[in-house]
Amino acid sequence: MRKLLLATLLGTTLAGTPALAETINLKVIGQPLATGLIQKNKEQPFFETLAEKTGLPLSINYKPLDTTGIKDVEQLRVLKSGLFDLISLRMSQVSRDEPTILGLDLVGLNPDFQQGRRVVEAYQDTVDQRLQERFNTKLLAVWPFGPQVLFCKHPINSLADVKGLKVRVYDQNLAQFVESVGGVPVPVAFGDVHQSLALGMIECAITGPSSANSAGWPEVTTHMLPLGFQLALNGYGINLKTWNKLTPEQQQRLQAAFDELNEDIWSYSEELFLDASRCNVGAEPCTTGTQYDLVDVPVSEADLATLASTVQSVSYPTWAEQCNKTNPDCAANWQRDLADIAGL
C-alpha cells in the first residue's frame, strides 16, 4: 500500500511539473568582421543577447562570415543545405544565385535612405516568396549599409573622370553602370580591396563611407565622390525547416526581435554614413571613425542627372532581361511593386 501511495504521489508531482523547454540550437553566420561597426555594435550583440531578449530557449553559435571560410556568394546555397540555420545575407552578392533579389537595389533606384525604405517595404514580400520557393529560406529583415560612393587613388573632378579607370564593383548591375560611364568594372571581394588599391590592380572602388573607413581605404585613395549609387542592402534569412520547427508564438517573438533590430540598424546606418563621410575628408564632428584627408569631390548636377536616368536606361532593362531568364514573372512583379516608386 505504501509503494502504491508513493507511486501515486510521484506521478501526481511529475504531472504537475512543467516540461523543460527544448533548446533551440541556431548556427548563425553574420556580416564579415571587415565591414565594421554595424557588425560589431549592432549585429553581434543582438545575437549574443537574443535568448534573453526573446525569452526563448536559444543556444546560438554566431560566426562572422570571414571566419568561416564560406564566400558571400555561397550564402543562399549554404542556407538551403541546412549547414547553417540563419545567415546575414549580403544581397548584391547572393543575387548571382537569385537575380530577383537585385531588384531591391538597382543602381540609381535608392539614392538615399528614404527612397530605400519605400522600395524595401514594397518589394520585400516578393523577394521573400522567391527565396522560400527556391532556397528554402524565409526573409526576416532587410537593412542597408548606406549609400555606396566612389573612392579613387586617381584625381577626379566628376563621375565622367572614371573613364578608362579600373573600378571595383560587387554586383553585375553596378558593373554595367560603371561600363556605361566609361569605367572598367573589376569584381573584387571586399576584404581584398585595400591591397588591390595599394598594388594598383584597381584605381577606384565603391562602398559605403563607414565600411571604407573601417577597412582603411582612405589610406590608399585620395578622392571621394559622395554620389550614392546603391544602398548595399543586406538581410537576415532563416532556413525554413528551422523556422517551421518553432511554434507560432516562438516565431512571433523571433520576428519581433528582428523587426526591432532592423529599425535600429536603419537609424544607425544613417548616423554612420553622415559621420564617416565627414571623417573621410577631415571634417568635424568625427566620432565613429578615423579622420583622413581625402578630397571631397563636389557632386555636380550632371552627375545627379546621369544617376537619375540610370534606372530607366541601364540598370532596370539589363537586370530585367537577365532576371526573366530564371524567373519569368520577375520584371512583371517588379513593375507591379515598384514602377510608381521608381518613376517608370
UniProtKB/TrEMBL annotation:
Signal peptide start-end: 1-21
Highest taxon in the source lineage: Bacteria
GO biological process, one term: transmembrane transport
Keywords (A to Z) from UniProt: Signal, Transport
InterPro entries on file: DctP_fam (IPR018389), TRAP_DctP_sf (IPR038404)
Claim: Transport is one of the keywords in the record: yes
Family indicated by similarity: Belongs to the bacterial solute-binding protein 7 family.
Name assigned to this protein: ABC transporter substrate-binding protein
Organism the protein comes from: Zobellella endophytica
